[in-house]
Amino acid sequence: MDWLQIVVLSIVQGLTEFLPISSSAHLILVPVFTDWYDQGLVFDVALHIGSLSAVVLYFRNELVGMTVSWCRSVAGKGCDEDARLAWWVILATIPVGLAGLAFQDAIEGIMRSPLVIAGGLIGFGLLLAYADWRRRGTRNEYQLSWQDALWIGLAQALALIPGTSRSGITMTAGLLLGLNREGAARFSFLLSIPVIVLAGGLEIVGLAGSAGPVDWGALIMGALLSGLSAYLCIHFFLVFIKRIGMQPFVVYRLVLGVALIWLFGGSPS
């Protein structure tokens, strides 16, 4: 891999993992406009590690509080708002884990069609537009009920459809359930932690038994760039949506979806 490929893929991963614009759509566009060969699972794992490190670092204080309180609740010493939030993250992760196991073959096959991605970008983009346009709630992530967490988790399972965007559909569900923009986004980012861990774990399993040379320089650079771009993305996205909202991302999704239809509309795959 040359340095330009490393930089582009790392930044694409870091940004699209958390913006509501679908990482799968962008990663499929990269080889369309380049002649780069597939970067391989090892590099994908490095990029996921970078993204995971960014979200953990950004929410480090919340995560420490959630972990300590969750352990206390397991020990029967009470359940405060931090413990409840930790339990809701766990609850909301279950549907996507089960759906991933049940529909893995379909996801890796026909559902990776560019036209499916375009449909996901447009359809779920319009749903995000509706959720953001309607009257917004005032609750934050600490005011979720277990029913809210379960609904958001069920929505997150839809992100297995390429083009949906995991962050986009979970933020949409949060807004529809009465969360404010920042609360919906922050809960979505917290939900990304177990999802990235699960996805990275599956990729590592896929690497089991494989052997070959490892370009440690590329892996380290990819992880660092992915982590840096992801951290900046989280910070500025939370500021941006508080002032402007989700509509610019909706417009971007619609434009990208139409572009994919134009590019691949005459192709059977």
UniProtKB/TrEMBL annotation:
Q: Per the record, what are the reactions this protein catalyses?
A: di-trans,octa-cis-undecaprenyl diphosphate + H2O = di-trans,octa-cis-undecaprenyl phosphate + phosphate + H(+)
Keyword annotations for this protein, in alphabetical order, are:
Antibiotic resistance, Cell membrane, Cell shape, Cell wall biogenesis/degradation, Hydrolase, Membrane, Peptidoglycan synthesis, Transmembrane, Transmembrane helix
Output the Pfam families linked to this UniProt entry: BacA
Domain of life according to the entry: Bacteria
What sections of the protein cross the membrane?
6-29, 41-59, 85-103, 115-131, 189-210, 216-238, 250-267
Q: Per the UniProt record, which EC number(s) apply here? A: 3.6.1.27
Q: What class of enzyme is it?
A: hydrolase
Read off the InterPro entries from this record: UppP
Localization, per the record, is: Cell membrane
Q: How does it sit in the membrane?
A: Multi-pass membrane protein
Give this protein's Gene Ontology molecular function annotations.
Answer: undecaprenyl-diphosphatase activity
* Annotated family: Belongs to the UppP family.
Q: What does this protein do?
A: Catalyzes the dephosphorylation of undecaprenyl diphosphate (UPP). Confers resistance to bacitracin.
Q: Sorted alphabetically, which HAMAP family does this protein's record hold?
A: Undec_diphosphatase
Miscellaneous information on this protein: Bacitracin is thought to be involved in the inhibition of peptidoglycan synthesis by sequestering undecaprenyl diphosphate, thereby reducing the pool of lipid carrier available.
Q: What is this protein called?
A: Undecaprenyl-diphosphatase
The species this protein belongs to is: Halomonas rhizosphaerae
